[in-house]
# Entry
Amino acid sequence: MARKRIILALAKGRIFNDTLVLLKRSGISIKKIDKKSRELIFELDGLTILSCKPSDVPKYVELGAADCGIVGSDCITESQCDIYEPLSLNFGHCRMIVAIKKNQKFEFKAGKEIKIATKYPNIASEYFKKKKMIPEIIYLNGSVELAPLIGLSDVIVDITETGETIRKNSLKIIDTIMNISAKFIVNKTSYRILTKDIQSLSDSIKKNGL
Ligand code: PRP
# Structure
């Protein structure tokens, strides 16, 4: 019986270049992956690559559309998907933070309503509920830093890497919710059916990406 090809979902965007470097170092020929192409599926030796929006990668893996994935832990936590997370990788490092306007004062007050602009509604709600506050989420798809500047929200919950966007927009960080890195994730059923193949992919990634 022919060996099943492993389907690997990759997050386009911030971590895509480092992911390709990792695959290359792990002995996978990535020549067929054209970063500029609008193609979404690439057939490599023994591996099918899906090029996905980062926030969709955990869903593809949970539903079995992909056997494995490489994506930031921000997207994994936000998705609340039921998947294995066997490997943390040594790239894609950043932080999930809470920020406000630089000249503003802020107090965590139990029972107080708070407007939060974010691409991460689950993480943001959970964080402020733990602080016993009443979160109102303003879901935005990007440029979240704008929201407090124009009075759309009290705070933002977002990722920061260099801190440049926060600085350039006169905001300040008041707390770190979590540290983030890229992770290798696996569908639970695929892991049972394709144990040997997934283990061997995971081992070569582990050798080269930790
Ligand atoms: C992310 C994030 C911040 C920025 C932080 O946005 O949402 O806006 O990067 O990076 P920095 O700390 O290095 O400045 P992204 O570039 O993904 O675009 P977006 O604002 O459209 O989401």
In short: The helical segments are 16-25, 57-62, 73-79, 121-130, 146-149, 164-168, 188-193, 195-209.
